[in-house]
Amino acid sequence: MSDAFSAIGSSFRRYDGIATWEAIAQLTHINMGKTGDMLNVTSLDAVDKSKEYIKGFKDGGEVKLLMVFMRSTLEILDGDYESDEYGEYEIILPDDETQSFISKDW
After folding, report:
1. In the chain, where the domains are located
2. What's the whole-model pTM score?
3. Mean pLDDT of all residues in the chain?
4. Cα separation of 37 and 50, whole Å?
5. For the segment 9-25, what is each residue's pLDDT rounded down to a tens digit?
6. How far apart are CA 9 and CA 73, in angstroms?
7. DSSP result, the chain
8. 75 φ, ψ to 5°?
9. CA distance linking residue 94 with residue 2, whole number of Å
């Protein structure tokens, strides 16, 4: 049986800097951009004439969110973008796991 779960019910929130997490938009898609290199370590004397690969560097990539905004929350995010301060955001997954991150760019 798979350990996969549906992202239905996920939410995106912003910390107000005081004490409250506020829903900032409705998510329509979450794309986790993690990647990893595969290094070709094939030697010319490979007995079975097959290429060999080993795991290389990992890249945490970017998290891309497609969202539906309301005017008021879009203005808050625009203010965060224009600010010199970092904003704190989180993605709440439907299994109650939370992924928090601090970002200058949203």
Report:
1. 11-32+60-103
2. 0.63
3. 83
4. 19
5. 888 888 888 888 888 88
6. 19
7. -------TT-EEEEE-SSS-EEEEEEEEEEEE--EEEEEE---TT-TT----EEEEEEE---EEEEEE--HHHHHHHHHHHHSSSPEEEEEE-TTS-EEEEEES--
8. -65, -35
9. 16
In the chain, the amino acid numbered 92 is I
Give residue for tokens 């998290």.
Answer: 63
Q: Which residue has the tokens 């938009």?
A: 25
Q: How do the pLDDT tens digits run along the chain, 106 residues long?
A: 766 667 788 888 888 888 888 888 888 888 877 888 999 999 999 889 999 999 999 988 888 888 888 888 888 888 888 888 888 888 888 776 666 666 655 5
* Token output for 28: 């329509």
